[in-house]
Every structure is written in structure tokens, then in C-alpha cells.
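Budget justification, computational time. The allocation requested in the original proposal was used primarily to generate C-alpha cells for proteins on the priority list. As evidence of use, we reproduce two of the resulting records. The first is shown immediately below.
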Amino acid sequence: MSTTDRIEKSTLIRAPRARVWRALSDAKEFGEWFGAVLEGPFAPGAVVRGRIADPAYAHVQLEMIIERIEPEQRLAYRWHPYAVEPGVDYSAEPTTLVEITLADAPGGTLLTVVESGFDAIPHARRDEAFRMNAGGWAAQVENVRSHVESAR
């Protein structure tokens, strides 16, 4: 796999795995730290839709196709990365796979996000989608950490 195909970000969350899992697996709570309003619930095969809460991106409609849920271990979904241009239909493009995993770690829970499949994104927007999502996931792992640690 090339280095342009995959983003990986991790953080240690000082909370039990069950608490971190709740922040990931509940669509409403996921939206709180992610900065989106989502219509859940998360369930294998479900299509979860929503919108970005930030007024600058209020036009962005999210669509997550839930692939896999392993309680307290893994949440995996597919989506169209950095699909933010108003009026553009991204539905014919390939999706990327986002896998969020949890593992016990000294002092809490290790959360790891891996997003893969960027090499299949159309060339014209691949680099920007990769760059924006790499920065986005760096911020989001900190958002979920802060959310969980402040709301224990």
C-alpha cells in the first residue's frame, strides 16, 4: 500500500474503553465531537446521513455507510472523502474506508483511526482530499479525546 493511500492517527484517551466506545458508537455523541448533526443509529449496513455543524460547511451533507461494528473494538464505515464542493455529485466516485479501533493501553484506551483507499479517488482531487483528511483526522482524534476526558 502506498503512503498516499492511507492516513493513520492515534491518541491515548484517559478513560475506560467502554466510555470511549460510547462516544464512537452513538451517532448523536459521535456528532458532538465530530462537529456534525447525524441521523443515526449506527448499525451494520446502515446509511447514516447528516450535515456539518460549522456554518462555513453547512452545505456539506455527510453520508456514512456503516460496514462493521465490533463493540468496544472497531467501528468501520465508508464515505466520500472531502466531498465539500457545493453542487458536485460524488456518488459515482469510489469511497474510502474509515476504521476506528480501540485497544487497552496503560492509563486508558488507545484510539486509532485509519482511512484508506485514497489511491482510487479521481486524480483531480486525490491530493487535496488526502491532505485535508490527514489534517482533519489529526484534529478529530484530539476532539474525541477532549470530549471523552471532559465528560467522564
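The second record produced under the same allocation is shown here.
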Amino acid sequence: MSPSLNFSIAVKSFIVDKSNKILLIKRRDNDVHSPGAWEIPGGRLSVGEDPFEGLKRETREETGIGIDIVVPLNIHHFTRDDRQEITMIVFLCKPLSNMIKLSEEHTDHGWYGIAEAKKKIVPAFRKEIDLYQKYFMKKDI
């Protein structure tokens, strides 16, 4: 099987603060992929980029904050509507600050409790909420 030229590795930060609130950001309404959707920060890695450094870079670019990476939480593999193949690694992270400064890619943000985040977030990331709730919520991470 030959590698696809339309393949990328992406990283996402599932950021949870000390009060178990999850940071969600809203894509702009004219975005090519999932316009207006509430999601978590992150994006594609450059070729050869370290996933941990790429996650910190993407999170800072989209939210203006630094993160501590705790542990990989989940992996997704999918093909976007534009036929781009993506393998995405989602990491559980802690924020180093709560002073969000959004990039132009996003129009809104908020820190949401588990129930509200589950209603608001795109369905693709509800599994991360379940995993966090089951394995990490009552632990001091």
C-alpha cells in the first residue's frame, strides 16, 4: 500500500482546568471544515515535527495559552469532506493560564462543565469527555 499524498497527522489538546472545566473553542462560520463547530484546540503537524512541540505550538496559536501535556487520551483516523486523510492524537492537558486570546480561526471560547461541554462539542470529541470522566476526573492530574 503506497502512502497517500493527502495524509496528515494532527494533534488536539483536551484542556481541563482544576475545577474539571473543559476549554472549547468555536470555529468561524466560514471555515472550510466544520464551520461554526465547537471543538478543542489543535491542528496538523508539519512534516517531521515533534507531536508534543506541535501540540504546544498549535494550542498557543489558537488560544494564546501554554499547556502541560499529561497523557495521550485517544486516537482518531478519518477522511475529511475534502478527502484529506487525518490521523489525530488527542492529549489530555492542563492549562498554564486561563487568559485566552483566540486566533482569527475561531470566534468564541468558554470553559464548560462535563454536561454542558458534551452538549456543545462536536460529536467526534464526545468520546474524549467520556474517557476523561471515567479515568481521570477524580484523580489529581
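A brief technical remark on that second record: The two ends are 40 Å apart (CA to CA).
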